[in-house]
């Protein structure tokens, strides 16, 4: 059973999400402030955290930074702050996705399902379908097309991060830091060049990608 920690200062929202998630067989704990969230995250070890940014004691970005000091648990931000700067700050701090209030429950549930489709618990490496091709992340091969597909080590680095988080927005800074290193987090032009190359090699119509999606100003998303 997937463990979800919901963090919000609204008792009504906490109750609604707890009831709806439990009705769908999630195990749920709730926290009304950032301090309680950090304690629960350490003691209960959730599989996913749904986090409001506007908390009474800590800003949600501070909570994300505190979690990222020791944990890679997926984090979906819920917030009434709709500005792109707030989204970028949360994603740069380590959030995996961002849902703006007011939101539909179906949308949130879809984001939760997408973000929890991660690497299997037994540690096996998946073979992932991208259009009509199969990408084997362990063997570093792409099959299913008449023409051979060769990816560079850098392209593999980007693609692996995206494929391991299907449906999840991966921030530009995370891709740059993990593939090139912390000193390259502002070199967004690198990503544009390499993503264009990946689309030419993997997408049926690179000019209208269906799987390797750009979220302008924020990052990239792999849609199965």
What's the short version?
The protein has helices at residues 11-23, 34-44, 60-68, 84-93, 105-115, 153-163, 172-179, 188-202; strands at 3-7, 27-31, 48-52, 75-79, 97-100, 127-130, 133-136, 141-143, 169-171, 212-215, 219-222. The protein is an alpha/beta fold.
Description of the structure:
By secondary structure, the protein is of the alpha/beta class. Helix content is 39%, strand content 21%. It has eight helices and eleven strands. The chain has helices spanning 11-23, 34-44, 60-68, 84-93, 105-115, 153-163, 172-179, 188-202; strands at residues 3-7, 27-31, 48-52, 75-79, 97-100, 127-130, 133-136, 141-143, 169-171, 212-215, 219-222. The strands form three sheets. It has a five-stranded parallel sheet with strand order 2-1-3-4-5, sandwiched between helices. Strands 6-7-8 form a three-stranded antiparallel sheet, with no helix packed on it. The longest helix has 15 residues, at 188-202. The protein is globular. Mean pLDDT is 86; it is low at 119-124.
Q: Averaged pLDDT, please?
A: 86
Strand order of the largest sheet: 2-1-3-4-5
> How far is the N terminus from the C terminus?
23 Å
Oligomer: single chain
